[in-house]
Amino acid sequence: MNAKLYLTLGFVAFATAGFAQKPAQLVNRANYRLSSKVLQVAESKAAPAVKKTYDTGVYYDTPKGSLFRGFSYDGKAYGYSFLVVPPFTDLTFTNMSNNASRSSWSVNGNDASERVVNNNYVGNFLPMGFWYAPTVTVGRDSYTWGYYNETGSVVATDSIADLAYFDLNTGARYGWGALEGKGKYLYGTGTVTMQNGKVYHSAGVTQYLEAPASPLYVNYISILAFSSGEPLKGDAQLTMTIYPANLVDTTYDENNPIVELTCTTNDTTFVYKGSSSNTTTHVANIYGLKFTNKQEDPILGITTDEPFVIDQPVAVVVRGVNDNGVDVGFPGHGYGNYDEQTGNSSPNEERQQINGFLDFQEGGSVFYSETALELNFNGMMDYVNVDSTFASQQGDITGANILKVSDDGQTVSTYGKGSDQNLGCAIAWTALPWFDIDGNSNYSVEGAPDWVSEVSCDPQYWTQTEQGQSVNYGQNLIAFKCQPLPAGVNGRAATVYLKGKGVKAATPIILLQGNADPTMSIAQYKADVKSGKVKEIYDLAGRRVLPTTKGLVIKNGHVVLNK
How crowded is residue 427: how many other Cβ atoms within 10 Å of its Cβ? Predict the structure, then answer.
């Protein structure tokens, strides 16, 4: 591969300007604010819109689909508020200020006008880092995200972490409400008495969520739950089904579930013992409940927890709360700091959210005013893509994703035009390092034909040092070795894609050998798809691997020996 590859100076300057201080360590923050005032139960199909206003009228909305750091399965969280966004993605911080046309933007005191589009700030962040949130200013008034969290706040691009749709460091968190039953739970086991005196038995709870800013790769979902004893006993279990949803009329497609998760007694963990000072009726302990996608491996005959992907608005539906052996209540997250004297909520720093819906065994649903179900998604918003135009100090290269393979298959060169610089590889950008700490690949190649004998990654530029500071640039050099061009074959081509955790590169890598040209690669790829040659390959642990991986692998549902 070539020597040092140079990024454009403008990109380097923007990347290093936004670093924030290192956030605090995880602490146990599983404390719930218990309301002595019963939250209102509204008999309505849809929750009303909540209008947020700030005292000065100067503020902005965080990017649509961005998430927040939530609670871990064992009840720990950060005191910092993390706004979690995917890397290498243009994200709009929408200016909601009065007189927005008079506003100006800055980041950590530095002018950020070059990132402003139509009075909004458009951020684009490097992977696995912490960044200062932007500041909007109108006259003497200014606003920076994190205003209501005194501990601190940052914008973060994460690896695998516990993520929530609502900032759990702001707003009220409720453990009890209007339910009457074993634990007077807000959402969970028990009954609810309506204003007309009719009693309903709880069936579960439904929470609607917007689409994430980038496909959300999820290992499991956890909830910190209450129980007067144990949440699940014996063979009891809870189900959590995720459906495609319409957020406008709060409906979901129950005929086409995305995934069904379960939580059994083996998926619960004790977090801490409740205090009698929190209630005058009983003491409830806190447990972590883990919902996983359990699948039986047909090859190994064992049950594994399979990841899944959310890339659209969804409804999360929990059922089984009143089954035998179940004593569980789920917390509700309020829009703001609830004032028990006035019944009002103060502004906080969450985007518009939809109330959680309490569902009844007898049919029908109601929602609690200003209260949503707390869900923690263990996963990440991954990213992978390939440069089609590579910008360097030596000049731009167009078609940088097209590689010419030598007839003997041992070297590749840049096919693209516009510069004399030969990269000798494709340039890929990834949210994670190509290899994890155990040496396993976080990314794979889809569509590589049999004549591609080796795919290698040089990750030396993924992390670089700028001005004495380590910066994750996310850059990888991808090279190939191929079989020699067979006698009598004038040329051949292949179109391959890089894949990550729930994402696939939009730009392919095109390999040309002999007298092949790029149009030939497209025809060859379509033929490979039609013939079934383009298949994902797994190792015996169920992880996706490269088609060139040696040893026993699972291919087309069968264990084969790759030589």
Answer: 23
